[in-house]
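C-alpha cells for chain A. Residues wanted.
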C-alpha cells in the first residue's frame, strides 16, 4: 500500500507534471523551488511536503537534491485523503515531534512489520500536518513573483528594489508581505536561497569556494565563507570534508 524510494535530482528544472498517486516527500539534501497553480514555495533540507493525487506542479533545482518519497496506493489515499493537507506548504521535520524520525527508521527496516509501521508513521505525520496547515495562508502573487525572480537570478547582484520591481509592488509592501507570509525579510530569503545552493554545490561539485561564491551571487569569497559558517557552524572547506571526505 506504500512504495518507498529515494529520488536524486540534478541542478536544473522539471516542466509541469503530475503524480498519479499521492506522495509524501522528505527532502534529505539540497533545496527545491516548486510552483503549483501559480503558487511558489521553497522546499529546503529536512522539510516535508505532500502531493495529492493528480496535482500538476513544476520544480526548479538550484543544485543537486535528494528526497525520500512515500507513494500511496489509491486505496490508502482514499482512506487518508480527508487529512491530506491542501494546499501543502513545506513543513520542518522537527515540528512532527519525532514522527519524521520514526518514519526514517522504519524505511530502513526489512521485517514483516515494516508495512504496518510505515502506515502508522504516515498517519501520525498526516494528523500533525493537518493541524499545522489548517490555517496556513497561500503566498500572495507579489511574493510568488519575487521568489520566481530571485530563483532565476541567484548568481546576479540583487537588491530589495529589484525584487519589488519584479513583483510590481513598493519596497515597503514587499517587505510587509514577506514578513507576514513567510516570517522572513525578502533579502534574508535571498540569502538563504544562496546558501542552500552553495551547500548543494559543495556536496555535488569540486568547485572552489571562490567559484561557488560567484555562482551563488555573494559579494566575494570572504562574505560567502562568513555567512556559510554562521549558518552551518563550519567553513565551506570543513563542510565539504565532513560530507564528502574531499578537500575544498
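Reply:
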Amino acid at each position: 500500500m506504500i512504495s518507498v524510494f529515494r529520488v536524486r535530482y540534478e541542478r536544473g528544472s522539471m516542466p509541469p507534471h503530475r503524480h498519479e498517486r499521492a506522495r509524501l516527500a522528505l527532502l534529505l539534501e539540497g533545496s527545491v523551488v516548486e510552483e503549483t497553480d501559480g503558487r511558489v514555495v521553497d522546499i529546503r533540507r529536512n522539510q516535508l511536503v505532500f502531493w495529492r493525487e493528480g496535482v500538476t506542479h513544476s520544480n526548479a533545482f538550484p543544485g543537486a537534491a535528494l528526497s525520500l518519497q512515500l507513494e500511496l496506493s489509491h486505496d490508502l489515499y482514499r482512506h487518508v485523503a480527508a487529512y491530506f493537507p491542501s494546499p501543502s506548504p513545506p513543513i520542518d521535520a522537527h515540528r512532527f515531534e519525532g514522527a519524521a524520525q520514526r518514519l526514517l527508521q522504519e524505511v530502513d527496516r526489512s521485517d514483516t512489520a515494516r508495512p504496518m509501521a510505515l502506515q502508522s508513521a504516515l498517519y501520525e505525520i498526516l494528523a500533525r500536518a493537518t493541524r499545522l496547515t489548517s490555517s496556513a495562508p497561500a503566498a500572495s502573487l507579489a511574493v510568488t513573483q519575487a521568489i520566481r525572480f530571485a530563483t532565476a537570478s541567484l548568481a546576479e547582484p540583487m537588491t530589495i528594489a529589484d525584487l519589488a520591481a519584479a513583483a510590481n509592488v513598493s519596497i515597503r509592501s514587499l517587505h510587509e508581505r514577506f514578513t507576514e507570509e513567510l516570517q522572513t525579510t525578502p533579502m534574508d530569503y535571498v540569502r538563504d536561497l544562496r546558501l542552500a545552493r552553495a551547500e548543494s554545490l559543495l556536496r555535488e561539485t569540486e568547485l572552489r569556494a571562490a567559484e561557488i561564491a560567484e555562482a551563488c551571487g555573494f559579494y566575494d569569497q570572504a562574505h560567502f565563507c562568513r555567512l556559510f559558517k554562521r549558518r552551518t557552524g563550519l567553513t565551506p572547506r570543513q563542510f565539504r570534508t565532513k560530507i564528502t571526505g574531499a578537500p575544498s
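The chain has a mean pLDDT of 85. The first strand starts at residue 2 and ends at 9.
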